[in-house]
Write the structure tokens for this entry.
Amino acid sequence: MAGAVNRENLDRIVGEIVQNTPVTDIHTHLYDPAFGDILLWGVDELITYHYLIAETMRWVDLPYEEYWRLSKVEQANLVWQTLFLDNSPYSEACRGVLTTLKALGLDVASRDLKAYRKYFGIRQVAEYVDQVFQIANLECVVMTNDPFDPVERRIWLDEVRTGKMERDQRFQAALRLDVLLNNWDTAWPQLKEWGFSVTAKLNEDTIQEVQRFLREWLEIMEPVYMAVSLPYDFQLPETSARATLIEKCIIPISRETGIPFAPMVGVRRRINPDLKDAGDGVGKMDIASIEYLCASFPENKFLVTLLSRENQHELAVLARKFRNLLPFGCWWFLNNPSLIEEITRMRLELLGTSTILQHSDARVLDQLIYKWDHSRQVITGTLVEKYADLLATGWILTEDEIKRDVEKLMGGNLWTFLERSI
Ligand code: RAT
Ligand code: ZN
């Protein structure tokens, strides 16, 4: 049979296919370069990634406020000295910096931070975006777009809505609703100031107005989904502003527009507030809340990622029961090779090809390079194992069939779920 795969050529073929399949990266914190400075890139941003700050602060005897008072370059110097020179940088976040520098053609052996700075100092962002997309082999990335963030809000309203800015289709939007859903006490006065006739009490008029707010932002951003990061103790159903907002505002609008709701659950925000973004933790959530959503709203679609390792098995089992649930990615503290391997293997065994294996969560453009390189390595190994098991039964596989599967797993399933293309 043409393109037939056997045990001898399997590793090579799967490796090449995973490498050559462009990814839809379903969750990042990157921005369309036209949004300006809020798109982070370059070596100092890479080195001061909050994952690395958490690791640095375990070693240095420096009050947190003093760290935050340092300039970006001084912060990067401290992280570099502490994690890369005084210790071997094999933690996932450290290794990621080195994978990235190497892929860009820099000499990692030199350990010459100044030379790396020089390289980035002369780069132009537009061509750099092209280069990163090409090295990481990405089709598109999904941003995290917060209408309550004053800087972003201004860009969406003044530049995008007015048509002054042309959107780069490689950067798809996601309407992020953390403030609305997790902080109604702050959200409602803000909505009121913006001209929505809402009150603290979620009466019928307020619900209608919140729906109007959502419709407006869906029109402005044209997002692929509406997302929220939720704490580990999130419950549904329950009597709370958040539960009411989800059931009475998000769910009906999501159904009406066909734009999925994406709960990302399991965070313990700011368990060490002095560490800022680096100070969040993880907790196991109650999967019954996701089950409630999928079962109660069968006409709605849910994209779900959970932060706790302990929730991964029950999420995969739940997805077997509900086709309106699409689990995605190995989120944040799970984005480490050992855990990606475990979760990927389990999802392939329980869900076949009907999942999205990974997202990058990149906050700095350059991180796309390492996050996808490392994930691709693990995904390749796990897929080889699964296809080898198939071949061992006497099943015949073709390269085209492997390509078909990999395209789905690397993000193609998002577009099928959305019933649209990019
Ligand atoms: O992974 C991260 O960088 C976290 O700080 C969060 O942004 C998390 O991914 C989130 O989307 O809330
Ligand atoms: Zn994130």
Notes: The mean pLDDT is 98.
